[in-house]
């Protein structure tokens, strides 16, 4: 009788709650779904609203994307080029802006599909970032694309097509309307900075002469020697 009475008092002090055990995994699952929804079909964008990611975009054509102070966009075979160090910032879900750390200009695409480096941020600087099946990323203009056309008497209807950032096998940018998602020239691998890149960033922020030498326009002979 005494044992039964003790058990009864214990139940009164700590009532049993049937839903408590299932609450933790349910909350974790909801958070996981929220991250997937934020990333959409292109993957999880956990950096949304965070600090810019410093990366180099290495194209499948073996060139690093460069943003020059002159407004020029091209690719370089150099492993450590100052103008290939970029800041990638999320401006919306799945939408990024890409800025040259040293040039201070933004990667942009105009209505003719040409890539250029803009001095200021605008709608032409926004790109849809997606993860490709091969592990590379693609960057398509948010503003411009090929609009689908209706079928005519002699031609079939065309589907909507995105315009991608693309660097060809000679290190030159391709016009957006000529690009495809599956082409090597449209596939980019974001690379983290190595020790030499970090040293260049440190010098750029602390050494005025180093900064001036980088931003100084190269001569014609220097451009020929560099190739790209």
TrEMBL record:
GO BP terms in the entry: anatomical structure morphogenesis; cell differentiation; fibroblast growth factor receptor signaling pathway; positive regulation of cell division; positive regulation of cell population proliferation; regulation of developmental process; regulation of multicellular organismal process
Pfam family membership, one: FGF
Record has Repeat as a keyword: no
InterPro entries referenced in this protein's UniProt entry, alphabetically: Fibroblast_GF_fam, IL1/FGF
Recorded name of the encoding gene: Fgf3
Signal sequence residues: 1-21
PANTHER family, alphabetized: FIBROBLAST GROWTH FACTOR
Record-stated family: Belongs to the heparin-binding growth factors family.
Biological source species: Tychaedon coryphoeus (Karoo scrub-robin)
The protein's name in its UniProt record: Fibroblast growth factor
Any one GO molecular function term: growth factor activity
